[in-house]
Specification:
Elements lengths: L2 E5 L6 E7 L9 H12 L7 H4 L4 E5 L1 E2 L2 E2 L4 E6 L32 H8 L5 H7 L4 H16 L4 E9 L2 E2 L7 H10 L7 H16 L6 E8 L15 H10 L4 E6 L17 E3 L2 H4 L6 E3 L7 E2 L2 E2 L4 E7 L10 E3 L6 E3 L10 H24 L4 H17 L1
Helix pairs in contact: 1-5, 1-10, 3-4, 5-10, 8-10
């Protein structure tokens, strides 16, 4: 089972993740992880902190000579800005300074409900952990999950499909070509016309002191039939994917396949008809069964059906605005205009990288659950045997 925990604050010394369940023999490199961290920091519309931090992950345990040992893997992403926050974020009582406290709760953040829940009168004790900065180390964990999945021919690709109301039209291209187009795009999309409009909207929002949200999409290719299960609610892969995407800061909606459009479409145009071609196996496909459409998004009954998994998430606009919203001081109860922390105008492109990571983690978890193995070699044997079974089914 792929399990992980993260720890750390936005302006603390570092973000840390411990991953348990990785088999031995998986090749890992900090270089590959750092490529994803750089993608998370990119994208048109990012704010000032991206110029302060240059995220780099370090592997501190569970890996020797480039391969996992089967023991827990520790990942660390250091915060470069820590040098300016050592006393304000110090764990030591002698550094306490009540005058540096934050009592003005920002609308749209976890500030007020978090302060009420944890009986805190300094909102910094909430905002430091609730910050989207935490996603940096989750992206690092996701890069590890993608390395694991890639060993078995499974690829995970995230992109932006809508931003500020502008929708991208998906071209009829293969996944490799799409990945290159997305990589070259300033907003991580595959439609150049939509990209121009999205950039113009971001510029307009910045000038107005406003922010923009959007929709990201993650596609998983090469997935075998049989990940997840229908037998219990918490084993359904679609439910686990939905929970993972909704766990990303600022996400307010999720859909699989046709998603909400399925609710507005007759059943005859929603359900994917099943066909069989015995020649598919000889052409290298995992099964003779297939579907010509994929409204289900690769998941039926909580189980992967062998088609491409398609998940989308809706991100709200960043709630920290340079045109401040009204709020109330949690101590004095006096009204004020919300304070401004460093913020992005639009973080939707970066969020597509985070969504890619959390989807990869859940698919890797389901893959481990199905095929087990304490080593990569053992997992490969289990998977190979299962594929042979599918070809004969």
């Amino acid at each position: 089972m792929f399990r992980y925990l993260t720890a750390g604050e936005s302006h603390g010394p570092q973000l840390t993740a411990i991953i348990e369940g990785l088999p031995s023999g998986l090749r890992l490199s900090e270089t590959a992880i750092n490529l994803d961290l750089a993608r998370r920091q990119g994208g048109y519309g990012r704010g000032g902190r991206m110029q302060i931090e240059t995220d780099r992950a370090r592997l501190l345990s569970g890996v020797r000579w480039g391969e996992t040992l089967g023991s827990p893997v520790t990942l660390v992403v250091e915060n470069s800005d820590w040098v300016n926050w050592e006393k304000r974020m110090s764990p030591f009582e002698e550094h306490r300074d009540e005058s540096s406290g934050v009592t003005r709760a920002r609308p749209g953040h976890a500030d007020l409900p978090g302060a009420q829940k944890y009986n805190q009168h300094d909102v910094r004790n909430i905002l430091e952990r609730s910050s989207a900065r935490e996603t940096a180390v989750r992206v690092a964990v996701g890069a590890v999950a993608k390395s694991y999945l890639g060993r078995f021919g499974i690829g995970v690709t995230g992109c932006v499909v809508e931003l500020g109301g502008v929708t991208a039209e998906r071209p009829d291209l293969g996944i490799k070509e799409l990945q290159q187009i997305i990589a070259d795009s300033q907003v991580y999309t595959f439609d150049s016309d939509a990209e121009e409009k999205m950039i113009a909207l971001i510029d307009q929002a910045k000038a107005a002191g406003d922010s923009l949200g959007g929709v990201v999409e993650v596609r998983v290719t090469g997935v075998p039939v049989g990940l997840g299960s229908h037998v219990q609610w918490d084993r359904r892969l679609d439910a686990r994917l939905a929970g993972a995407v909704m766990s990303i800061q600022a996400f307010k909606g999720v859909e699989v396949g046709a998603g909400f459009a399925a609710a507005r479409t007759p059943g005859s145009r929603v359900h994917d008809e099943i066909f069989f071609d015995p020649q598919r196996v000889s052409r290298g496909e995992q099964s003779g069964f297939y579907r010509k459409t994929n409204c289900a998004g690769g998941l039926e009954g909580g189980i992967s059906n062998g088609e491409e998994i398609v998940v989308r998430g809706a991100m709200k606009p960043i709630p920290t605005l340079y045109t401040p919203l009204k709020s109330v001081d949690i101590v004095t109860k006096e009204p004020f205009e919300a304070t401004v922390e460093r913020s992005d105008v639009c973080a939707v492109p970066a969020a597509s990288v985070v969504a890619e990571a959390v989807v990869a983690i859940e698919v890797a978890n389901a893959f481990m659950d199905k095929f087990g193995g304490d080593s990569i070699a053992e997992t490969a044997r289990n998977y190979s045997s299962y594929l042979e079974y599918l070809r004969e089914f």
